[in-house]
Design a protein that fits this description.
coiled coil; DUF2203; alpha+beta; about 130 residues; Cell division protein DivIVA
Length: about 130
């Protein structure tokens, strides 16, 4: 049976998940930078034939490390019961009940508290204020 969060329960997790989300964003940034460095090296190799195997191996080792850290952070979020919807935005949904039906409480980094919800079949664009009647 799924766990349904109340607004209070979900908000109590915000100080816990905020650093995890920032960590995820940092690992994704590092992965993108590594991909860009690797691409630049491949282009350089193709142009002048220099061997850059050592640098490529170092980039690959770093990428594996960043991926592992990213996976661990994602597992941490899953264990807390929330769903990461957009890592770049730090967007997280919490399964909840509203008027007897399943919905998501919706929050992202930068918001002080959970102010929105949306039906399961809509996303961020379908957010509605919690205080709306």
């Amino acid at each position: 049976m799924p766990h349904y969060f109340t607004r209070e329960e979900a908000e109590a997790l915000l100080p816990v998940i905020s650093p995890i989300l920032r960590h995820i964003q940092e690992q994704r940034r590092r992965l993108r930078e590594g991909e860009e460095r690797a691409h630049a090296i491949r282009l350089r190799i193709m142009k002048n034939g220099h061997n850059a195997n050592e640098t490529m191996m170092e980039i690959q080792r770093e990428q594996v490390l960043y991926l592992r850290r990213l996976q661990e952070a994602l597992e941490e979020l899953n264990e807390l019961g929330c769903e990461l919807k957009d890592p770049d935005m730090g967007l997280v949904d919490f399964l909840s009940l509203r008027e007897g039906r399943e919905v998501y409480l919706c929050w992202h980094l930068g918001e002080e508290r959970i102010k929105y919800w949306h039906p399961l079949d809509t996303g961020f664009q379908g957010r509605r204020p919690l205080d709306e009647e």
